[in-house]
Amino acid sequence: MCTSTGQADFQPHITISSGIPLSTPEDLQSLLSGVNLSDRPPKIVFKRVRYGTAFWTKVTIEIHKSTSLKDLAVACRAALVPDCDQAAAEEWVEKYTTPAESGEAGFIPHLSLVYWDEDIQRSDYDDVRVGVSGDVNDAGVALQEGRKGADIDWEEVAVGNMDGWSGGKLVLVDTTRPVEAWKTSILAEREL
């Protein structure tokens, strides 16, 4: 199902990794359950509203790369993506880029808000950008854009209300299906 403006309707989420091959749900559940995760749940701290060029990143809330979030991404990528060992996963998680932006894969953690087809008029996209930014502000979402990550231990930043959270759930979704079908395309789940 899409909205009247052509935007895809989907569950907001943070993509931890891509490139996980499809398998039977039983195999994926076993793989996901076997990922060696830290006892510390991932810390999610909102950074800023970010506007991208790719369908998947048109409007997002960028997330600070806390140590626990990077650890989660490395563990998942090393365990679930073929030919990706620990060192390759660690290198990937430190890159601040996406294939749509540079042709290279990297990790920019974000909470997806809007997906947008290329055939939508540019003027509509500008209206959506303004609208989403207004909605984020009106909802009281607290962004930590001005705080620099190099001198802040994001694990020590208290989160609550509308500035982030700790923990969550890992969900493997068959993203080869249309976005509007993702809610019913869950292949495996694991609480953090």
Computed Rg: 17 Å
Number of separate helices: 5
Shape designation = globular
Question: Topology as H/E string?
Answer: HEEHHHEHEEE
InterPro entries: Cyclic-nucl_3Pdiesterase, Cyclic_Pdiesterase
Organism: Drechslerella stenobrocha 248
GO molecular function, one term: 2',3'-cyclic-nucleotide 3'-phosphodiesterase activity
Pfam families: CPDase (PF07823)
How would you characterize the overall build of this protein?
It holds the Pfam family CPDase. This is 2',3'-cyclic-nucleotide 3'-phosphodiesterase. It comes from Drechslerella stenobrocha 248. GO terms for molecular function: 2',3'-cyclic-nucleotide 3'-phosphodiesterase activity. This protein is 28% helix and 17% strand. Helix 2 packs across helix 3. With 192 residues, it is α+β, with helices and mostly antiparallel strands. A hairpin with a 7-residue loop joins strand 1 and strand 2 (59-63). The chain has helices at residues 25-33, 67-80, 86-94, 99-102, 122-138, and strands spanning 43-51, 59-63, 110-114, 164-166, 169-173, 186-191. The chain has a single domain (25-191), classed as Cyclic phosphodiesterase (Cyclic Phosphodiesterase, Chain: A). It starts with 24 loop residues before the first helix and ends with a strand. The longest helix is centred in the last third of the chain and has 17 residues, at 122-138. The strands form two sheets. The protein has a four-stranded antiparallel β-sheet. It has a two-stranded antiparallel sheet with strand order 5-6.
